[in-house]
Batch of 3 targets.
Target 1
Amino acid sequence: MREGEETPPRELPARGRAARRGPVVAVALLAGALLVVLLGRVSLVPGLDGVLGLETKDRSGPALLKSVQDMHRYEGAAGNFQIVVDLEKDARLLPDAIRGTRTLYVASGTVGAYVDLGAIGQDSVTVDEKRSSATLRLPHARLAEPSLDPEKSYAVSKQRGLLDRLGDLFSDNPADERAVHALAAQRIGEAARESDLTLRAEKNTTAMLEGMLRALGFERVTVTYV
């Protein structure tokens, strides 16, 4: 080679080029996998589902009847309740921006009050000889379990730390709201116990039994709750 001439660039062997492309391909595959996960978990752009052609298909099987129970109670009243649940979970040593959740949830539900007529025995009903008067001794009304209405219940806001958001990406049930639902049902049940639902149920049950027995020919009907 003469002096002053530039040395032509040497081409890398095929094995060297493949070694350099290896990390790049790995990073591209990882980025693609994360993109698929993000697209599956959240809607980054409004109307993206329509552009991608995503459809909702119901492949659920038929409902199976597991058991049948005879009902021997009369529901004399039902109350409709609504409560705003503000549930916050914090980590002691981490700021909320890193670890912690706060959910503001509006819950609507109903609670029924009933009288258990199946508990009435022969000693609970007294009829005179002329069958003109009857006395019934019934148990006090009770409250049923609260039932949340999913169509009228909704989350107003959800605040999650960075670690919680990352956990939701790889979770089978992200942003689990079971704790919020349980707390809402508990608060609605407490409100029902403080109301006059049981008294109203006993009053309506008495009116129902009086009307039915008087239609059968009884002139005097007395209903007491013990």
Note: The CA atoms of residues 79 and 195 lie 9 Å apart.
Target 2
Amino acid sequence: MADLVPEAATESVEVNRATLLDGLPHGFLGRRGGLSEGEVAGLNVGRGSGDDLDLVERNREIAAAAVLPGARLITVYQVHSADCVTLGEEAWSEGAKVDQRPKADAIVTNRPGVVLGILTADCAPVLFADREAGVIGAAHAGWRGAIGGVTDSTIAAMEALGARRESIVAAVGPCIAQESYEVDAAFRDRFVTDDLPNMRFFAEGRPDHFQFDLEGYVLCRLRAAGIGRVEGLRLDTYTDAERFYSFRRATHRGELSYGRQISLVGLG
């Protein structure tokens, strides 16, 4: 449990924070700190990374303790969807062997004493809060979830718990930056067909290829939803190997595995 994690174990953990969430237990964590070694060295929290599961579980405890000591970590089984689930009085298993977590890519709650976690390795983590209503949320916005409306689903679920759209703030954490995210014409066409103005999120690259601004697109979706304020941390997971895990970087390097970082938000 997180309350058993020695304080010294969290000292080397880098916790990137958002101005809009100041004063609320939260953090966009990277790979600094933790117990994993080799290609996934650091604070790897990915159970599907091929890493030693005992180390992964310990890393998850360290991560949660770095943000909200004593809180229970709650995550979902991410599937690149637009689905959001609500954590009420019940709490599903966080066990490594028998995975009973719901398949979804966002989670909301008004329950104190827990910390919601979203895993990423280039996709955009988004943390939400309505302080007045005491409602928080976390979303995993890869390109599929982003265009599918995972942030919209999260906002709607928060409203169902009593949040007010105009009082919700949201921050987008470390993700792959536009200069690092090359896509082909078919990828671009999915977004342009959905909404022609999406063309502005694609910069010209090499022939028949483009550079996609994932963070910019997610921020635009959040603003269009009419929430109070939004913030982007502008941290590139691909280029900063010392601080962040990156699926695309690991692929380009021919590495056999890649780690996952976690973004967390809780109610004390």
Note: The first strand starts at residue 15 and ends at 16.
Target 3
Amino acid sequence: MRWVLSLLLLYVGHLPANELPPLRFAIAESWAMPLVRIENNQPVDGIMFDLMTALAARLQRRPEFHVLARLRLQAAMERGSVDIRCFVMPSWLGGQSGNFTWSLPLFEQRDWLVARHPETTPATLSDLPSQTIGTVLGYRYATLQSEFDNAHFARDDARNQQQVLQKLQAGRYHYAVSSQLSLDWFNRSQPPDRRLMPVALLEEQALSCYVRNDPEVPTQSILRELLVMKMSGEIERIVQHHTGRHLGDLNTGNAISQ
């Protein structure tokens, strides 16, 4: 967003020569638009790029982005090579080690079972025939995990959510898992007869950021500014800018049980 970059330049222009250390943000290479667009291994656009850039500007720090494989993100936080990781929840991390502080929930994410054509919603996952499901490499899907464990379903992993949906549209499998944001972004560029359909709601998640507790990192200031951005509606406006949707919007669909 131009206003975010202008704000950042304004702050940076007032920093002394020996400026404060940068804020080092973790970026998952598996993210796709509208979360982030990555070019030459650096984010250049998207919800998370705008949020992180705006946060750094508020703290008069330079943002530094580290694009990493999803499975390397937590290790990077624990060894101190990055300071902030966002769009995540504690249950994803398992046995988290290290000294971190979590923000309040900033985003609501809804994961859907998606198909190319309208399908009858199964009462339970086990009602679906044994088959391959499109997934993102390194993502854990709690609702589907037992079906993967007993081999009722097999994973077909792609590097990011965009590739998962492209493979579904190409007929590589009958179903895939997609977040609401990614599904909306994919469908906006498709003609009506090629748009993918949400079949069943798998999970709703409240996602946050967490920050390293370290003297070099202004942890409490970061958390305070994230709270201000959330309560003032700034995060909501960033999401709307990239999607045209509110955080709480929900496509029609039915919940599915395990």
Note: The first strand starts at residue 23 and ends at 28.
